[in-house]
Structures are given as C-alpha cells and as structure tokens.
Amino acid sequence: MTTPLPPAGSLRRPPGVEAEPFGDSALMLRIADEDAEARRAGARRLRDILLDVRPYGVLNLVSGAESLLVEFDCLAVSHGQLAQTIRLAVAGMGLQDAGPVAGAKDLVVPMVVSGEFSPDLPGVAQELGLSQEATLSALTSSVLTINLLAAAMAPMMAGVNFPGQVSRCAEPRTDVPPGSVMVAGTSAIIQPFPGPSGWKVIGRTPLTICDIHEDPATSYRPGDRVRFEIIPESRWAELEGRFLRPAHQQEGGRHGTDA
Questions:
Q1: Are 185 and 120 in a shared domain?
Q2: pLDDT level of residue 251 (50, 70, 90 thresholds)
Q3: CB environment 132-158: b (16+ within 10 A), e (fewer)
Q4: 216: cis peptide before it, omega within 30°?
Q5: Structural domain includes residue 258
Q6: Is 8 part of any domain?
Q7: Where are the alpha helices (DSSP H) in the chain?
Q8: pLDDT band at residue 223, thresholds of 50, 70 and 90?
Q9: By residue range, what is the domain housing residue 82?
Q10: How does pLDDT run across 68-101, given as a tens digit for each residue?
Q11: CATH, residue 225
C-alpha cells in the first residue's frame, strides 16, 4: 500500500528536488529543472550524497539517466520518513556546485568507422542534416559523462553535441556485436556483449569494455568522462581484445590515429 508523502513543513528543502513513492518500498528522486544536464548532474549528485550518508533502511540505489530510485526496507522506515531524511541530507550537502564526481576518471575509447562497423551512420547523418564526417566530428568533439550502467554493464553516456535528437531503430536488432558504439537522442552507449538493441550503430571499438576476469569487471563507473577517437581500421588487430582502462593507464599512450 502506497501513501502520499507528507508536506515538508519547516524542513529546509532545496528547491527542485522531487521525491515520490514508487511502490511499497521505493522512492523515485528527480530534479525539477528545464535543463537536461542539470537533471542528469543532480541525479548523480543525489546518488553520491546517499552513498555518503547511507540513510537508515536504504537497501539499494538504482541510477537512471535523470532519476534515482531508492529501494528501502518498508518495515524499518516509511516513504515520508525517508523522504525527510533525504531532504535534510541534500539541504546539508547541497546539489549546486558539486563539481565533478570524486575520483571521476577520463577514458578515451578508440573506434573504427566502416560500412561493416557503422551500418546506421548514413541514416543518422541524414536525420541530423549533417554530413557523415560532421556527424562523427560532433561525437569525437564531445566530452560525455557516464550517467548509469545499463544492462550487462553497458555505459550509458550523455552529452553528444548533436544539433538534434537521433531516433531509435524502427526495428531493433536482435544481435549487436560487442564493442558497437551506438547513439540515440543525444546520448551514446557501448555494447559490452552480443545482444539486442534499438540504438543506432555508428562505429565499433576493438577494446573489451567489460571482462569478468578483471577485478573489477569494468574500469568505468557513473560520473566518469569519455571521449571517442576515430582510428584507422589497420589498427584493429593491434588493439583488439585489450581491456579499456583510464586514459593515464593505457598502454602506449593515446589510441588516436598515428601522425
């Protein structure tokens, strides 16, 4: 049974933070702001605050692109009590001027662009009203932020400098190869393992981005920054299978095209 949240009353509630019941034992947190980046940054900041404070009764946090689902023990705390605790924590620690996520890393992802690896690039360029070269330039000139880890630890990234929104495939593919670099809206994602996807494929990286033999299995987490770098297909064999690591740990320096 869900119950509406009580009014905050005299709580010093930061403007723009919304909390609403999500079933019997979860709260959905969002930032009410017209700016998409502010909503995404706020959701990441909320996650960091709750990981730091660890309110009583909280069992799990599930990040969304612009939201945070807080799962809790409904026998230990109510929706209203947890909402008040969260609002107090946010009021004390603040959402504004949070700066980059503590320990955020920079990653450079090399990608190969060809007919086989980029089946949707012509259509994406046409949809945006750009040439294929300008479309790729918009991607590689962007510094993307990982908002969340989707299915199979796929890094979902926001901040591609496209002049418009890219639609999803009318018919999703049933088997997208691992390493595929895909876009939708103004976001990008990398396919860690073979599987279905409705995002549009515009390139592929030779690197392995998720490896269960590594500890941890991925070198990235929400808040990390990513840049894409186009490399010639001749470098595929050289880089194939290497584990994606932060830029400062990559063997041989940058993966970019040789001068």
A1: yes
A2: low
A3: eeebbebbbebebbbbbbbeebbbbbb
A4: yes
A5: no
A6: no
A7: 36-53, 79-93, 121-128, 132-140, 236-239
A8: confident
A9: 17-93
A10: 889 999 999 999 999 988 888 888 777 764 555 5
A11: 2.40.100.10
